[in-house]
């Protein structure tokens, strides 16, 4: 569903001064994906290790048997769902090349509903929801709180790191575009344009004041 809604995103209405990334191997893309991968693996390993600490000693893995919900696969399911949500939130290409996420209402509301469902299941606010998803309830309150912290950490850290890398890359590409424009004489940068406007306005004011002083001088002499 979210994959379909991402395709409904429209380009931005204003043209950006910097060029968009043309390769998936560009450093902002690779750096963002590497940081997200580190966060996902760390969170998933921490949750898996935490769940295994509460596994019974006589547990035997039956790969050929029917599915049986247990604490480990319940924790892994919640964390994997959080990773899917954070992937959409972190890798959505918004401003300045595409419309921001808030403009794609269907995708925004779907992600809000998705994240809310994950947090509701992790907090075990509605036990019937966990039962319908074949999720085992947490053995202790401390365990539940730690799982919720892992879910929130995965989403927040992934989005924050990816957004930071994206903003930094956009800023650097914008500065590079301004330098190229100055070198080729195609236009002025934003600061230079503001300085030019200020000089022009001050020049107009000075010319008006000098003109009015000349008129008053002529009237006095007359």
UniProtKB/TrEMBL annotation:
Give the molecular function GO annotations.
Answer: ATP binding; ATPase-coupled monoatomic cation transmembrane transporter activity; metal ion binding; P-type ion transporter activity
The cross-references to SUPFAM superfamilies, in alphabetical order and at most eight, read: Calcium ATPase, transmembrane domain M
Q: Name one GO cellular component term.
A: endoplasmic reticulum membrane
Which residue stretches belong to region Disordered? Answer: 183-222
| Compartment annotation | Membrane
Q: Where is the composition biased (Low complexity)?
A: 201-222
- Give the way it sits in the membrane: Multi-pass membrane protein
Q: Where is the composition biased (Basic and acidic residues)?
A: 183-198
**Residues annotated as transmembrane:** 24-51, 71-94, 106-127, 147-170
Protein name per UniProt:
Uncharacterized protein
């Amino acid at each position: 569903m979210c994959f379909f809604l991402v395709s409904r995103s429209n380009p931005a209405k204003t043209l950006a001064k910097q060029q968009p990334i043309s390769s998936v191997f560009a450093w902002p893309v690779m750096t963002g994906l590497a940081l997200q991968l580190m966060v996902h693996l760390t969170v998933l390993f921490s949750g898996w290790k935490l769940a295994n600490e509460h596994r019974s000693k006589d547990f035997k893995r039956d790969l050929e048997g029917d599915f049986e919900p247990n604490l480990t696969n319940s924790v892994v399911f919640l964390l994997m769902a959080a990773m899917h949500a954070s992937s959409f939130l972190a890798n959505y290409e918004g401003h300045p090349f595409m419309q921001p996420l808030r403009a794609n209402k269907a995708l925004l509301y779907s992600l809000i509903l998705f994240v809310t469902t994950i947090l509701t299941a992790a907090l075990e606010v509605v036990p019937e929801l966990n039962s319908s998803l074949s999720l085992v309830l947490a053995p202790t309150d401390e365990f539940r709180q730690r799982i919720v912290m892992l879910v929130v950490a995965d989403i927040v850290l992934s989005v924050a790191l990816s957004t930071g890398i994206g903003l930094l890359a956009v800023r650097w590409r914008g500065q590079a575009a301004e330098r190229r424009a100055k070198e080729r004489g195609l236009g002025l940068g934003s600061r230079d344009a503001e300085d030019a406007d200020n000089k022009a306005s001050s020049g107009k004011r000075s010319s008006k004041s000098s003109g009015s002083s000349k008129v008053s001088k002529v009237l006095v002499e007359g």
